[in-house]
Design brief:
single chain; 190 residues; mainly alpha; two-stranded antiparallel sheet; 8 helices; elongated
């Protein structure tokens, strides 16, 4: 009987070691699955990668939910559409909200690197609302040719005193007249 004790103890130690190794590998795989773009990916890169995983209809519905302020429904839609984890879906929807991405069909080539050229405005699949107010006067511009980056450039131009360039850029990226754009830009100046 004593001759069986040593082999049984060795067998139990081997089984415990294998179980711990399997558990550790499973945790590593789960951690990697929650980080689709890698830990060093910027939010803009995450947004681009997340948008590429959606069909045109899913993309449109997701941005409609984001625009309506329904973050939980947007996360659920992304989760169901991609099959990614809940945390990854939350991060992806947050990145898509912060860095809006136009829909690109899978066979479309990537956008050129010259994004600073705003001579020909790009149309986005969502409406962007820019609101400016001073005192009791409030103006709103809603357009699918505006996004955070373009509106930021327009605000910078307005605050630096180049109101005519800001008004011209605003009319180029919206459907308002130059007079309406000047009134809007006047409210942006501090």
């Amino acid at each position: 009987m004593e001759s069986l004790v040593a082999p049984v103890l060795i067998l139990l130690a081997v089984v415990a070691g294998v179980a711990l190794a399997v558990r550790a590998v499973g945790r590593r795989k789960a951690a990697r699955a929650g980080e689709p773009a890698g830990p060093a990916a910027s939010p803009a890169e995450l947004a681009r990668a997340a948008a590429a995983k959606l069909s045109e209809e899913e993309h449109r519905r997701l941005y409609a939910l984001i625009a309506q302020g329904q973050a939980m429904a947007a996360i659920k839609l992304y989760y169901e559409a991609t099959g990614e984890g809940l945390r990854a879906s939350r991060d992806a929807v947050g990145a898509l909200a912060a860095h809006p991405q136009p829909y690109r069909s899978p066979e479309a080539s990537p956008a050129p690197a010259d994004d600073d050229d705003d001579d020909e405005p790009q149309r986005f699949p969502y409406r962007y609302r820019a609101i400016a107010s001073k005192g009791d006067v409030t103006r709103e511009v809603s357009s699918n040719m505006l996004n955070d980056e373009i509106y930021g450039r327009i605000r910078t131009l307005a605050r630096s005193g180049d109101t005519e360039a800001a008004a011209t850029a605003l009319t180029r990226h919206s459907d308002i007249t130059i007079k309406q754009a000047r009134e809007f830009i006047e409210l942006l100046q501090d």
